[in-house]
Amino acid sequence: MTSRWQESMMDNYGTPQLALERGEGAYVWDTDGNRYLDLLTGIAVNAVGHAHPKVVEAVTKQISKLGHTSNLYVNEPALALAERLLDLCGVPGKVFFCNSGAEANEAALKMSRRTGRTKIVSTVGGFHGRTMGALSLTGQPAKRTPFEPLVPGVSHIPFGDVAALEAAIDDDTAAFIVEPIQGEQGVVMPPEGYLQEARRITSEHGALLILDEVQTGVGRLGTWFAFQQAGIVPDVMTLAKGIGGGLPLGVTIGFGAAGELFKPGHHGTTFGGNPVCCAAALAVLDTIAAEGLLEHASAVGKEIAAGVEALHHPAISGVRGAGLLLGIMLREGVSAKAAAVAQKAGYLINPIQPDVIRLAPPLILDESDAQAFVAALPTFFEEQA
Ligand code: PMP
Fold this sequence. Notes:
By secondary structure, the chain is of the alpha/beta class. The protein contains 13 helices and 15 strands. The chain has helices at residues 5-8, 53-65, 76-89, 101-113, 132-137, 141-144, 162-168, 194-204, 226-230, 275-290, 293-311, 335-344, 367-376; strands spanning 20-24, 27-30, 35-38, 93-98, 119-123, 154-157, 173-178, 208-212, 236-239, 250-255, 316-322, 325-330, 347-348, 350-353, 356-359. Strands 4-10-9-8-7-5-6 form a seven-stranded mixed β-sheet, with helices on both faces. Strands 1-2-3-13 form a four-stranded mixed β-sheet. Helix 3 runs parallel beside helix 10 (275-290). The longest helix has 19 residues, at 293-311. The protein starts with a helix and ends in a 9-residue tail after the last helix. It binds 4'-deoxy-4'-aminopyridoxal-5'-phosphate. 4'-deoxy-4'-aminopyridoxal-5'-phosphate (PMP) is lined by residues 100-102, 105, 127-129, 179, 183-184, 212, 214-215, 240.
């Protein structure tokens, strides 16, 4: 299966490492029957683990009842999900559904144009997707350069730098978009108080604060959303990845007045609010609450971080992140090789930068699996000593 791809699929992702066939809980199996602990795809595929019975049941029931409807009509799962998300946010607002993180940010970008301003400030190293609008917001040159010219009016300032933000934002700025933690850049944390300062500065100039919570939202950091940890309310929040329980779902929420920026005809997408995807997301949110997965993610994340630090391994310089979004910082250049060795040993980890391994397991990851991973970690560097 791994060699067949070359005949029929575009080479966007390089040679596939594995052909996967099945998943259950925090495990996946390849086509040869080998089992792997999935510390990687939790970020996107599944907050609650693979093939969670509640998600399977919700999807099966919904697709046999109503699999799709035109967005000229509304459907109960979409309505219930919008209400539930606003309830979890604890802030009045309005919800727009789409199919991916890039699309959720496209919607946010278009919403910002409705302010009548066109200047956008984003961050160096920030990742917001790969469609042309979302790519314009993304601050990673290697991804942008081959596709320039991009949407005009976007500037990129260093992440975490309050003085740079103060200098970049003025009364012509439509929005500042930022991730609470830069996921794709290697789980980079801003300094304490950064989001609060971003809120203050954007408010002072009447600019929207857009938080891209595609990686940090839906329980990953041990709270429903990162903005709640920071004690601020953004104007716009975007979600995707883990919320759909493995189904494609993007969400753009406008809080307060930002929820009124779009008028009929401004924006839309065929599958936005698809009842099956929304039913899956409701099952994910139910499961996170019913199984206490916020507290669990926080506790297991802390345990992994402490365990990795306690190894005092020469290849590891530290751990950063929060909840179950962790970056293990390494000696430069060893992450790809370590991930390859880990895979042979039955662990899927993500060498996100040459010197960082990102861990983003399903939130249900249990303590014994987390401990087994920490114990195995030194062996991933043995051949590279
Ligand atoms: N925003 C962030 C913070 C992301 O990490 C990603 C995906 N890595 C995206 C947006 C884009 O999401 P998608 O791949 O679903 O378009």
